[in-house]
Automatic annotation (TrEMBL):
<dbReference type="GO" id="GO:0008939">
    <property type="term" value="F:nicotinate-nucleotide-dimethylbenzimidazole phosphoribosyltransferase activity"/>
</dbReference>
<keyword id="KW-0328">Glycosyltransferase</keyword>
<protein>
    <recommendedName>
        <fullName>Nicotinate-nucleotide--dimethylbenzimidazole phosphoribosyltransferase</fullName>
        <ecNumber>2.4.2.21</ecNumber>
    </recommendedName>
</protein>
<dbReference type="Pfam" id="PF02277">
    <property type="entry name" value="DBI_PRT"/>
</dbReference>
<comment type="pathway">
    <text>Nucleoside biosynthesis; alpha-ribazole biosynthesis; alpha-ribazole from 5,6-dimethylbenzimidazole: step 1/2.</text>
</comment>
<dbReference type="InterPro" id="IPR036087">
    <property type="entry name" value="Nict_dMeBzImd_PRibTrfase_sf"/>
</dbReference>
<comment type="similarity">
    <text>Belongs to the CobT family.</text>
</comment>
<dbReference type="InterPro" id="IPR017846">
    <property type="entry name" value="Nict_dMeBzImd_PRibTrfase_bact"/>
</dbReference>
<keyword id="KW-0808">Transferase</keyword>
<dbReference type="InterPro" id="IPR003200">
    <property type="entry name" value="Nict_dMeBzImd_PRibTrfase"/>
</dbReference>
<keyword id="KW-0169">Cobalamin biosynthesis</keyword>
<dbReference type="InterPro" id="IPR023195">
    <property type="entry name" value="Nict_dMeBzImd_PRibTrfase_N"/>
</dbReference>
<dbReference type="GO" id="GO:0009236">
    <property type="term" value="P:cobalamin biosynthetic process"/>
</dbReference>
Length: 332
């Protein structure tokens, strides 16, 4: 069935056309991508991609780089926000090491796609080589091919990754650094001003860049791998649930690499991170939720899953003819 077919089905349900607003368009998008209208068949999963960033040495984060590995250990132990929300919805969670500088001692259950012990400092030189950037995209695509769920949520963990995301978004969109830089893990005004200065310097090293060149110059390993996974999942007709600012930067990269994959994207929420609203506007994306969240980890994406399932349930409504309701609008 085509998207138009699913739209006709929704329009013939016992309600005024369009009366459920974006809930209806979400139902049509999900059904058209998945080829299935049954919520119970739309299984979901969460993958968290983790890596470190050399630009953390410039004190652009309120937390030290060691926290990346410590939080990954927390994910593996089941103690993070993403764990408890995923458990609430019975969504399995996978953690991927894309390049953690200080990985946890216990690595069983941690998927190893490490590209090194964190990127280089993009304020002084390229974050990675072009070959490594291409490898990040390729391994993300390959990883996505092994995901069995129909709905894929992607999250991230990496100290200083709001800096990498802001720089990548700047290079892809042309939006100024000032409009994209934010407080990340909770910087005060003085630290935020310093972060902007560092990012302005990093951005000024290079001019206009092609998408893979931009990834190579500003990183990071987890953002590139996530972008590749979004491309891989999107081109295999999985519904890709995009989380917050960092995930949206990855989505912008995925779209630049493979424009058609964006039709499968559901933007979960508008985060409190300063640049997220600006980036969403540039992408002409309207997220489902606005809860003032800025944690990452895929937490916002997880909250979108029950909304997607509920949207698909609309196809279980009776049609006007089935319900014997008169006054149905004409369906062409």
């Amino acid at each position: 069935m085509t998207r138009a077919d699913f739209q006709r089905l929704i329009d013939d349900k016992t309600k005024p056309i369009g009366s459920l607003g974006r809930f209806e368009s979400l139902a049509v998008q999900a059904a058209a991508i998945l080829g299935d209208m049954t919520p119970s068949n739309a299984s979901a999963s969460l993958t968290i991609f983790a890596a470190d960033h050399g630009i953390a040495a410039q004190r652009v984060s309120a937390f030290p780089q060691e926290v990346t590995g410590q939080m990954v250990a927390n994910f593996l132990a089941g103690g993070a926000a993403a764990n408890v929300i995923a458990a609430q919805f019975d969504i399995p969670m996978t953690v991927v090491d894309c390049g953690i500088a200080h990985p946890p001692r216990r690595r069983d259950a941690l998927v190893d796609l490490s590209l090194g012990g964190g990127t280089a400092d993009s304020s002084t030189g390229p974050a990675m080589s072009p070959e490594t950037a291409r490898k990040a995209i390729a391994q993300g695509r390959q990883f996505a091919s092994g995901i069995e769920s129909k709905i894929v949520c992607f999250g991230e963990m990496g100290i200083a990754n709001t800096s990498a995301a802001a720089l990548l978004a700047h290079k892809l969109s042309g939006i100024s650094v000032a409009e994209l830089v934010g407080r990340g893990t909770g910087l005060d005004d003085t630290a935020l001003s310093h972060k902007q200065e560092v990012l302005e310097h990093a951005a000024a090293r290079t001019g206009a860049l092609a998408p893979i060149e931009a990834l190579a110059e500003v990183g990071g390993f987890e953002i590139g791998t996530m972008a590749g996974a979004m491309v891989g999942a999107g081109t295999s007709n999985k519904l890709v649930v995009v989380d917050g600012f960092i995930a949206t930067a990855a989505a912008a990269l995925a779209r630049a690499i493979e424009p058609d994959c964006e039709r499968t994207f559901v933007y979960a929420h508008r985060s409190a991170e300063h640049g997220h609203r600006t980036l969403l506007d540039w992408l002409e994306a309207e997220p489902l939720l606005d809860l003032d969240m800025r944690l990452g980890e895929g937490t916002g994406a997880l909250l979108a899953v029950p909304i997607i399932h509920a949207a698909l349930s609309l196809f279980g409504m009776a049609s006007f003819s089935q319900a014997g309701v008169s006054g149905a609008p004409p369906i062409s």
